[in-house]
Amino acid sequence: MKTETTIHGLTASLHAARQARKTIGFVPTMGNLHQGHLNLVREARKLCDVVVVSIFVNPIQFGPNEDYDSYPRTLDQDSQLLAEEGCDIIFAPSVEQMYGSQPRLTNISVGQITNDLCGAQRPGHFDGVAVVVTKLFNIVQPHFAFFGQKDYQQLAVIKTMVRDLNMPIEIIGVPIARAEDGLALSSRNGYLSAEHRQIAPVIYQSLKTAETNLKQGQALTEVLAEIKSTLSDAGFVVDYVEARNPMLQAVEQFDQDIVLFVAAKIGSTRLIDNLQISH
Ligand code: AMP
After folding, report:
1. What is the helix (H) or strand (E) element at residue 21, kind and residue range?
2. Where are the domains of the chain?
3. 63 alpha carbon to ligand 1 midpoint, in Å?
């Protein structure tokens, strides 16, 4: 396994693979890897000849009061895990390498779906994601790219962008990896105190209860209100609890496949989760 920190180095490393027409699989991450990330790498390993994983904490997708500075950076540990998982190349560029010294004038906005849910809470976040993912796609030029359903809205934004702009890349969504108690794995779980870590699985439990209640015929608005009150009672400050169809359009009732979305803070840690429910 090689680690490249420059665009030039990465291009040189991939040259032989491209010449040999090998398929290149790409997994973009911000590092501090856990089993959720490693599942993406495993899928890439299954489908592609060469697997590239990027580790880059992207400053432009963080808001001014968010955790960019404190975001965990654990490259040595990540490298160890990726070597065990059979990754071929780590791309770990600096901010200067990715953004250079000239001001960036180009933005990528994927429209309405980026203003909803997390986009409503985090203005500019999905523009920052769209820009960095496009830059990484142009640098790596993969055939396949792998994204987690944990960030369902992000996956939808990337799929939409790739479709709208004819990017020649197949996007593969990978299911959410969870801890045994149901908590969706996230690098941000490391921020949780022992007490908050005990409470955190209530998010997934409330989603599973909601699924049961919907399937038993309870009205969607009631089910959403119950998730909110369960979370508030457990000590969360709820950002949103919403239902959408799989294309992220509004739904009034459970008369089609839906996705339930939660974003909630426990202490200062913001957690997100979602559950796809088939009709
Ligand atoms: P991040 O490092 O948080 O930017 O995540 C990098 C990729 O890993 C994104 O595509 C995420 O959706 C995915 N990912 C993060 N956590 C999970 C998880 N628990 N299950 C599945 N995918 C995940």
Report:
1. none
2. 2-174, 187-274
3. 19
- Non-local (6+) Cβ contacts of 65 within 8 A are none
- Index of the ligand 1 atom closest to the CA of residue 30: 2
CB 56 within 8 Å of CB 93: yes
- Closest atom of ligand 1 to 32 CA is 2
Question: Could you report the per-residue pLDDT of 196-236, keeping only the tens digit for each?
Answer: 999 999 999 999 999 999 999 999 999 999 999 999 999 99
Q: At the fourth CATH level, which superfamily is domain 187-274?
A: Pantoate-beta-alanine ligase, C-terminal domain (3.30.1300.10)
* 126 band by pLDDT with thresholds 50, 70 and 90: very high
Distance, CA of 152 to CA of 144 (rounded, Å):
18
State the Cα angle at 190 between 186 and 195, rounded to 5°: 110
Q: DSSP letter for 271, please.
A: E
Mean pLDDT of 20-48: 98
Q: Cα separation of 29 and 13, whole Å?
A: 19
Q: How far is the CA of 28 from the centre of ligand 1 (A)?
A: 9
For tokens 């990337």, name the residue: 158
By the 8 A CB rule, do 150 and 39 touch?
no
Contacts for 157 with CB less than 8 Å, ≥ 6 apart:
110, 113, 114, 126, 129, 130
**CATH hierarchy code of domain 2-174:** 3.40.50.620
Give 211 Cα–ligand 1 centroid separation in angstroms: 23
Query: What angle is formed at CA 143 by the lines to CA 158 and CA 77, rounded to 5 degrees?
Result: 75
Q: Just list the catalytic residues.
A: 37
In this structure, are residues 44 and 146 in contact, taking their beta carbons and an 8 Å threshold?
Answer: yes
